[in-house]
Amino acid sequence: MPNIPDPVTFRHSDPVLRRLRLRDSWGKPVDLKAEFRDAVVVVFFFGASWPGSSDIPSKAVEDFAKRHPHRLKVVYCSCDTSEKAYEGNTRGKIWTAMDEDSQSTLPPPPPPSEPFLLASDPDLESDLVDPTSDPTGNLYLRPYSRVFLAEKFQVLGVPNLVVYHLPTGKVLSKHARFESLKGDKGEEVWKKWEEGEGGEFSFKDIVDKMKWTLGMGVVAAAYVVAVRVGGVEDVLGKLTETLTKNYLAGGR
Fold first, then answer.
1. How far apart are CA 143 and CA 117, in angstroms?
2. pLDDT at position 225, please?
3. Could you tell me if 178 and 162 are in contact, meaning their C-beta atoms sit under 8 angstroms apart?
4. Are the CB atoms for 166 and 36 separated by under 8 Å?
5. DSSP per-residue letters across 11-24
6. Backbone angles phi and psi of 70, in degrees to 5
7. Residue range 62-78: average pLDDT?
8. How far is CA 151 from CA 27, 122, 124, 147, 154, in A?
């Protein structure tokens, strides 16, 4: 029989949250219903620290979370390989963190307090338990380990952000850009996420990224119109024809 934890740590209606074991910034178990009572968006922050690593991604997430308290919750999913790094990334932070027992990267791995699902393990409970028969999430189900959650969300490296919309249970983004959290762009992204929309790119972003391509397209279109309608000599056409004869047709 598994070691059943305090029910407040797994009682929740959401099918993902109920499978997590979270700790607050002081290492205490999290009451899921209380923690996520007003939450609409959950950001899963897969991160790690090592000598020489940048703290810019972490600060971007922290600043974004501070601008949207209560409605946004961040869950830190540690890929740290040392106890010191794990402590540094979880203690005194604005986010909750997956229970240390669910981490398989800390040497030596601690004996798990529960039978956490590991990568490639079959999630039999999700297939057998009908959500409509347990709408409040009172039943105990095997919790997810960090590696299982990473595989579920197709996380291939760190740092990485997965955005989850609680009201609909939809994953809005599996690889959200840290840059999109900053400034006015961050506010635009938040509005989309809050409404359950996954797009991070606005029309303005697309135009900005493709400005040179679009510019060349406009020039090319203008040239074609000038040649066909305006009677301008087709210099490029003649040059292309000459090159074809000299280099592709052997000068014939």
1. 6
2. 63
3. no
4. yes
5. --SSTTGGG--EE-
6. 75, -55
7. 97
8. 25, 12, 16, 6, 5
Q: How far apart are CA 37 and CA 73, in angstroms?
A: 10
Helix axes 56-67, 183-194, angle to 10 degrees: 60
Helix (H) or strand (E) holding 161: strand 160-165
Q: How far apart are CA 105 and CA 83, in angstroms?
A: 10
Per mean pLDDT, which range of 80-84, 165-169, 231-235, 239-243 is the poorest?
239-243
**pLDDT per position as a tens digit, 178-215:** 999 999 999 999 999 999 998 654 444 444 544 555 56
What are residue 164's DSSP bridge partners? 42, 171
Are 32 and 11 a contacting pair, CB within 8 Å?
A: yes
pLDDT at res. 55: 95
